[in-house]
Amino acid sequence: MNIMVFICAQSFFKAEIMEWFSDIKNSKIDLSIIIPMYNVEDYIIETLNSMRGVRGFKVELILVDDGSTDNTLNLAKEWANSSDFDTFILSKENGGHQ
Where would one find the signal peptide in this protein (predicted)? Predict the structure, then answer.
């Protein structure tokens, strides 16, 4: 059984996310978690580390950056590179929601 959790996602990422979902529809991922990010460098690592508490599922993280102007994106990339999770990062210029 697959479970997908949408924490939040902006509509301007919809095409990229839907294309990506169609690519993985036959995978064995149990839990997909989408985490939106915008200028959250002060707590993005704490948020991502909290995902390590998820047990009993194969977890996939989808990080959606809305054009952060601080160090959010770099911190998320560094965390993803050192994580055991399948982590995907989508990043675009800010869509006007701040």
Answer: none
